[in-house]
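TASK: fixed-backbone design
INPUT:
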C-alpha cells in the first residue's frame, strides 16, 4: 500500500529505494561506522548491485514529532534531488500521519525560483527527482492528512515566489495584482491619499508607482465573528529614500516585502483549506525610492488617527507604513486581534541571530499562542520587551513621535514601541520582526538559500 506525491518532472536516469530496516541493518554492517551514524536528518545514498539504496537517520521513533519528520523529509529531498534519482520509494515503517508529515517536508523543500527569470536553467541546480512514493499501512488516511498540509505548502511557495521577484517585476501595482488573484479571498484597494494614510503615502511618494493599502478578506467563520487581522509590510524595493542605503547588498531590498508576502500566503492557506475562521489581511504596499518628490529627513507627517511623526531617517520607512496600516485596521476592520509581520530592523538580527524572529506583545495569551505555534511549525520566536522604558528614544521636540533615533540603542525595541502607539490598548496585538528569517543565507532542511516563506505556517496554525 502506497501514496504518491509528485514533484516537478525531470529526465529519467535512476531509481532509489529508502532501505527498509532489515536491509538497512545489513548495509550498515558493511559500512565503516565512522562514515555514517544514523542520526536524525542524516541521509546516505548507496549505489548497490540492486540499484540505489538510501539510508535515512530517524533517531528514536518515540521522538519522531512533526517537526523532525518534516526536517527529515526536506533533507532527504535536498540530498537526492540532483543525484540522478527520479523515482524514490520510502519505506520507513511510519504511520499515516507521520508519512504525510514526511511528505510535507519533502514538498516544502522542493521549491526553486520561477523559470521565467532565466533563459536557460542553472545546470548545478537541475532536479532529477520527480516522484516520491511513501509506503504506509493506511494510504487513504495519509492522503487526507496531507491535503491540509499541501494547501499550506502551496501558500508557502507563493510567498517565496513573491519575495524572490525582482523590484522591476513586483512593483506596487504588480503586488496588488498578485494579491487579487488569491482564490477564495476578496481584495479591496485603499488609496492612501484619499484615506488619510499619510505616513504610507510619505514612504511611497518618491516613487513613480503610487503606494496602496491592500485589504484581503476571508470569511470562513460565523457572520458575527470578528476577524483576526494580519498586517504586513509590503515595501517592494527599499533604497532607503534620501537616507540612501550603501550600494553593496542593496539588491537584497527587493525582499523587504517579506511580511506582506507572509500575510498573503497565510490568507491563501486559510482559503484553500476552508478554515472555519474570519480573517483580514492588510498589506501596506509602497516603493521607497529617491526623487525630487521623496520625503525629506525632518519632515513632519500626520498619521492615520492624528498622531504626528517627525521622520528622522527615511530608511526607517517600514514602521511608518505599518503604523498607518495598524491604525486603519483597528479603526475600520473591527479585529478581534492584530498580528503584524515585517522585515523591520537589522537590530533584531544582532539580538537573535538567524534562528528566531523577534516577538513583541503586551498580551500574554496571544504571546503564548504565537510562541507555541512557532515551536510546532518550526518557525521559532523569542519574546522581547515592550515597555514605556524605551519611549525616550522616540520623543520628538516638534511632533508627537519620531520614527527613530540616531543614538545607539535597541532599534528593534524602539520600532516595536513606536508601532504600539498606533494600536488601541483594548485590541490584543503582536509584532513580529522577521528580518533575520524571511530569507536564508544558506541551505536549510525546509528551504534552500533564499526566501523561506517564514510566517505562513505560523500564522496558519495560530488562526486555526
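OUTPUT:
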Amino acid at each position: 500500500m502506497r501514496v504518491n506525491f509528485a514533484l516537478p518532472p525531470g529526465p529519467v536516469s535512476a531509481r532509489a529505494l529508502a532501505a527498509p530496516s532489515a536491509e538497512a541493518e545489513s548495509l550498515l554492517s558493511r559500512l565503516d561506522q565512522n562514515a555514517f551514524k544514523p542520526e536524525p536528518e542524516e541521509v546516505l545514498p548507496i549505489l548497490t548491485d540492486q540499484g540505489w539504496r538510501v539510508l535515512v537517520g530517524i533517531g528514536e521513533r518515540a521522538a519522531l514529532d512533526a517537526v523532525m519528520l518534516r526536517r527529515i523529509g526536506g533533507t532527504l529531498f535536498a540530498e537526492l534531488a540532483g543525484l540522478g534519482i527520479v523515482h524514490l520509494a520510502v519505506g520507513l515503517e511510519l504511520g499515516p500521519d507521520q508519512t504525510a508529515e514526511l511528505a510535507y517536508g519533502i514538498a516544502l523543500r522542493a521549491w526553486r525560483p520561477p523559470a521565467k527569470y532565466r533563459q536557460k536553467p542553472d545546470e548545478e541546480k537541475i532536479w532529477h527527482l520527480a516522484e516520491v512514493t511513501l509506503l504506509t499501512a493506511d494510504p487513504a488516511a495519509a492522503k487526507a492528512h496531507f491535503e491540509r498540509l499541501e494547501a499550506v505548502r502551496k501558500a508557502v511557495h507563493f510567498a517565496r515566489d513573491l519575495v524572490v521577484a525582482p523590484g522591476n517585476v513586483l512593483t506596487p501595482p504588480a503586488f496588488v495584482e498578485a494579491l487579487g488573484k488569491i482564490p477564495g479571498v476578496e481584495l479591496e484597494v485603499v488609496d492612501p491619499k484619499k484615506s488619510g494614510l499619510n505616513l504610507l503615502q510619505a514612504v511611497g511618494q518618491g516613487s513613480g508607482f503610487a503606494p496602496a493599502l491592500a485589504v484581503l478578506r476571508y470569511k470562513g467563520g460565523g457572520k458575527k465573528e470578528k476577524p483576526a487581522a494580519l498586517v504586513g509590510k509590503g515595501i517592494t524595493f527599499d533604497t532607503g529614500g534620501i537616507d540612501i542605503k550603501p550600494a553593496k547588498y542593496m539588491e537584497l531590498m527587493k525582499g523587504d516585502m517579506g511580511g506582506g508576502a507572509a500575510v498573503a500566503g497565510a490568507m491563501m492557506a486559510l482559503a484553500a483549506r476552508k478554515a472555519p475562521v474570519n480573517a483580514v489581511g492588510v498589506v501596506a504596499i509602497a516603493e521607497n525610492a529617491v526623487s525630487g518628490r521623496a520625503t525629506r529627513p525632518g519632515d513632519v507627517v500626520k498619521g492615520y488617527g492624528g498622531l504626528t511623526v517627525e521622520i528622522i531617517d527615511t530608511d526607517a520607512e517600514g514602521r511608518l507604513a505599518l503604523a498607518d496600516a495598524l491604525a486603519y485596521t483597528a479603526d475600520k476592520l473591527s479585529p478581534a486581534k492584530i498580528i503584524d509581520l515585517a522585515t523591520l530592523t537589522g537590530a533584531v538580527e544582532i539580538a537573535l541571530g538567524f534562528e528566531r524572529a523577534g516577538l513583541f506583545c503586551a498580551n500574554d495569551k496571544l504571546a503564548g499562542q504565537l510562541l507555541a505555534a512557532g515551536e510546532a511549525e518550526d518557525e521559532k520566536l523569542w519574546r522581547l520587551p515592550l515597555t514605556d522604558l524605551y519611549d525616550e528614544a522616540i520623543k520628538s521636540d516638534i511632533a508627537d513621535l519620531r520614527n527613530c533615533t540616531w543614538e545607539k540603542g535597541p532599534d528593534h525595541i524602539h520600532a516595536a514601541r513606536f508601532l504600539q502607539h498606533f494600536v488601541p490598548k483594548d485590541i490584543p496585538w503582536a509584532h513580529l520582526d522577521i528580518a533575520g528569517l524571511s530569507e536564508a543565507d544558506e541551505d536549510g532542511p525546509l528551504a534552500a538559500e533564499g526566501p523561506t516563506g517564514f510566517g505562513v505556517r505560523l500564522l496558519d496554525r495560530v488562526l486555526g
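COMMENT: Residues 8-15 have pLDDT under 50 and may be disordered.
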